[in-house]
């Protein structure tokens, strides 16, 4: 089974504050959760030696130096980011695969519809990955685990998917309902936060610093095929890897 851990970056309810809304995360095979968690725990011991309780790695807090990260200078925080993003960079397909859907303000309508569109897209991309896996041999189902934000809406959307499918088709390979957790509960949501944050920085600020770590980790059918795991919804002419790989 694959678990798709998802988080949001940007706010589809406040387009006055940002031009992009992102849902992003990482699909992890059940056998890799412990290994990835241990890698994250080892990073914590490097920067916060002697603290045994989990310190959640939240991208915005690291970048701004809030909370415990305020004790780290900017260079040390940059090194921490590098170590964390290398966890994603060093994953091997198909043990961990990234997915993200980005909505530009040029495609925005109303907040609930925008959230529905972006979530439907990423759920369908995850389902497509699972469907393709059937031709590779082992048959895996999937489960979605999302950060608590907009929990009620996600549950409502998923019930609709069960009855009517998504705008992009049925998602029969995703079992049960989505489950919800926070970054303080699981390191895997923290990895999802890193993915969503890197994608948001790339599209909102044209900042490739973190995106370059993960750009080759998005789902693809084959090495020279479209970047199936990354979708950019925009009315503008765009040459990002998501748009250019489809033209």
Structure commentary:
The mean pLDDT is 93. The protein has eight helices and six strands. By secondary structure, it is of the alpha/beta class. It is globular and about 50 Å long. It has a six-stranded mixed β-sheet, sandwiched between helices. Strand 4 (142-147), helix 5 (151-164) and strand 5 form a beta-alpha-beta unit. The chain has one domain: Nucleotidyltransferase, domain 5 (2-Layer Sandwich). The protein has helices at 33-47, 59-64, 74-89, 111-133, 151-164, 187-205, 211-214, 241-244; strands at residues 2-9, 20-29, 96-104, 142-147, 179-181, 230-233.
- CATH architecture identity: 2-Layer Sandwich
Number of domains: 1
Strand residues, percent: 15-25%
Tell me, what is the CATH class?
Answer: Alpha Beta
Unreliable runs: none
Distance between the termini: 33 Å
């Amino acid at each position: 089974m694959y678990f798709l851990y998802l988080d949001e970056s940007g706010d589809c309810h406040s387009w006055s504050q940002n031009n992009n809304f992102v849902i992003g995360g990482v699909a992890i095979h059940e056998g890799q959760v412990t290994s990835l968690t241990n890698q994250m725990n080892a990073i914590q011991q490097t920067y916060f030696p002697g603290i045994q309780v989990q310190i959640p790695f939240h991208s915005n807090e690291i970048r701004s130096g809030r909370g415990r990260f305020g004790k780290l200078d900017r260079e040390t925080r940059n090194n921490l980011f590098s170590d964390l993003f290398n966890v994603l960079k060093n994953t091997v397909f198909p043990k961990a695969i990234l997915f993200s859907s980005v909505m530009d303000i040029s495609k925005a309508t109303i907040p609930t519809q925008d959230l529905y569109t972006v979530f439907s897209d990423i759920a369908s991309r995850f389902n497509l990955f699972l469907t393709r896996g059937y031709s590779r041999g082992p048959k895996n189902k999937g489960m979605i685990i999302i950060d608590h934000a907009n929990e009620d809406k996600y549950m409502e959307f998923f019930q609709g998917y069960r009855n009517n499918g998504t705008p992009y088709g049925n998602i029969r390979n995703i079992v049960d309902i989505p489950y919800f957790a926070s970054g303080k509960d699981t390191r895997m949501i923290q990895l999802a936060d890193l993915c969503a944050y890197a994608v948001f920085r790339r599209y909102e600020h044209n900042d490739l610093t973190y995106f370059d770590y993960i750009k080759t980790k998005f789902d693809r059918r084959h090495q020279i095929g479209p970047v199936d795991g990354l979708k950019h919804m925009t009315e503008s002419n765009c040459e990002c890897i998501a748009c250019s790989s489809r033209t």
